[in-house]
Hints:
Elements: E1 20-24, H1 28-40, E2 44-48, H2 51-60, E3 67-71, H3 79-89, E4 95-99, E5 117-120, H4 125-144, H5 151-156
Parallel strand pairs: 1-2, 1-3, 3-4, 4-5
Helix pairs in contact: 2-3
Amino acid sequence: xxxxxxxxxxxxxxxxxxxxxxxxxxxxxxxxxxxxxxxxxxxxxxxxxxxxxxxxxxxxxxxxxxxxxxxxxxxxxxxxxxxxxxxxxxxxxxxxxxxxxxxxxxxxxxxxxxxxxxxxxxxxxxxxxxxxxxxxxxxxxxxxxxxxxxxxxxxxx
Length: 157
């Protein structure tokens, strides 16, 4: 289904209570469901309904966002465009994208958008939490190992 962690039998790590997830989802029912799953796992969650709202929040407010979890099909600014903008502003911030269908962004080309994982809807709670865990691990490894740049960082040089 496009998510490398989905086939893994491993358990998710216990989140640090200060871990903040920015959820960007325009569907109110899905947003509420994802919020419940994430909060139930111990994460703090902030929610935006559009990509533009999320981008404005991340550029104008002092935030402690650790991972961005975004739908691709958003009004005003799509999730993949949000990921590109975020990578320019916050190169180490991990982004997980969710989609019902996208021919633009797949797990195979996600790195081109600065995305750690692409989840195909419907998403199980386990898939969601494994993707967040992978994103947090990726961010931690990027902070401790700067000798391996992302493709976007290479292209910017």
